[in-house]
Amino acid sequence: MSVLTSLRSKIYVGFSVIVTLLVAIGVIGYAGAHQLHDSSTAMRRISGVNAAVLEIDRDVQELQLRVGRYMTSGHDSLRYDIVELNDHLVTLIHEMASNQTDLELRDLFDRMSEHLPEYKKHFDSVIEERKIRADLVQLQLPQQSAVIDSKLSELNSLITESEQTDEIRVALLRCETMFSQAEKLLLRYYVGPDTKFVNRALSNLDSAIASLTEISTHRESAELRQKLIAELKEYERIGVRAVQATRSYLFLVNVVMAGEASEVTYYSDRLRKISEKRRDAISAEVASTAANVQKMTGFGIGIALALALFIAGRLAVLILQPITALTATFKRLASGETLVAIPETDRKDEISQMALAAGVFSDQNRKRQELLEKSEQLTEELAVKADELEATNADLDSFAYVASHDLKSPLRGIRQLATWIDEDAGHLLPAESVRHCHAMQSRVRKMELLLDDLLNFSRIGRTEAEPEDVDVSAILDGISEITNNPYGVSVRWPKHVANVQDDSSPAGTSASESDWERD
């Protein structure tokens, strides 16, 4: 039988195809799940990038806000907070850059991280410029103003004592007024920086110096006037330097540092846009993968179901129908029928082997039928033989009965004659003759017993036997009497020999061989 034509191979091939399809479906599902897992991991990474970008934007805004507060108040606690927040941003961006596998995102984070050290360096410059401005505005300018006020008072006293003309006094008053206005304008600039305040302050200082030159005719005050002019110019220099310091840290804060913060915000915006684009692409890929896996899984399951139904139907045709026919055949064979034609014997698979087995079963039924017929014939012959045996047994019974009764009469006569001889002439006969006469009587008696035993033996199997005790001593005495002993062997046995029950169930212990002796 070819391997490809056997039912086992067909079943194995069918199930192998189904299992292969199921494995393929499992592989597709696993690959889809793996791809979805990778997409989910990528989505989590992109979400982490978005969260980090939002945190960076929030921290940059907070950094700018704290810098503005520091510029207003100048508290050292705000400065420490700004440095700490800047360091936190550097650490966060560095961690995000080192965790990125996407080169584009890593490059953006690296570029972003380059601006924060510059931001901190510029903030240090702001701190230095603010310290310089504070020293100029809060220490040097007031000191220089006090010197100028002192010089003006001294010059005013000197001019008053010398009783100068009103033009000189007016020029001195104009100088005092211009200086006072210049001082106020500079203070207004330091509170709310505006270039017009500086320009007007410098113009007033120039006017104050010009007013001092108008009183040059007063010789006594020439030296003092020159010193006052020098002090006014020093005040102007300090004021200009304070303005420059103010403009410098304002430029650093409002332009340079704001530019660095804008660069960080720019890169964070690019990161946000890229991450959103990647997230949309991953979402579309996840949806496409899920749809493809669902489609391919459904298609594979449909093919597997179709193949399963086809294989089940094919196997039903190949197996169920012939099995049903063979089942009916075996039922007929089991009932004892002998069939000439067995169905499905022309196949080349296991069904044909079953059909051949049914043929063997049919042959066995035929042989058993022949044996039954022979058995019936032999039974009839045995019945005839039994009848013949029964007749033979009846004849044997009759013969034994007749022989027993017919032979006993002459034996009784012989025993009676021997008795009479012994009684009438026993004293006249020699001892040897008397012994022979006694032996004859004993032998006749044993002969009668043998005849009785023969009659009983003929009845064995037709009468129900009952257990009875057997006198072993009597049997031994009888054997000794009827035994011919030409050599005069002396036979002895114990006086008391236990009786036995039946011939197969000894009730006691008989004499052993050691009790038998020869004289």
Task: Please give a structural write-up.
- With 519 residues, the protein is an all-alpha fold.
- 82% of the residues lie in helices and 1% in strands.
- The chain contains 9 helices and 2 strands, in the order ααααααααβαβ.
- The chain has helices at 7-73, 76-99, 103-161, 166-191, 195-213, 222-334, 350-425, 431-458, 472-482, and strands at 469-470, 500-501.
- The chain has a two-stranded antiparallel ribbon with strand order 1-2.
- Helix 1 runs antiparallel to helix 2 (76-99) and helix 4 packs parallel to helix 6.
- The protein is rod-shaped and about 230 Å long.
- It starts with 6 loop residues before the first helix and ends in an 18-residue tail after the last strand.
- The relative contact order is 0.07.
- The model is unreliable at 504-519 (pLDDT under 50).
Topology:
Elements: H1 7-73, H2 76-99, H3 103-161, H4 166-191, H5 195-213, H6 222-334, H7 350-425, H8 431-458, E1 469-470, H9 472-482, E2 500-501
Antiparallel strand pairs: 1-2
Helix pairs in contact: 1-2, 1-6, 2-3, 3-4, 3-6, 4-5, 4-6, 5-6, 6-7, 7-8
**Share of helical residues:** over 70%
Strand arrangement within the widest β-sheet reads 1-2
Shape: rod-shaped
Profile the largest sheet. 2 strands, antiparallel
Radius of gyration: 74 Å
Rounded average pLDDT: 77
Number of contiguous helices: 9
Question: What proportion of the residues form beta strands (DSSP E)?
Answer: under 5%
Instruction: Give the end-to-end Cα distance, rounded to a whole number of Å.
Output: 87 Å
Q: How many DSSP E strands?
A: 2
SS-based class:
mainly alpha
Contiguous low-pLDDT stretches (5 residues minimum) are: 504-519
Q: Would you list the SSEs in sequence order as H and E?
A: HHHHHHHHEHE
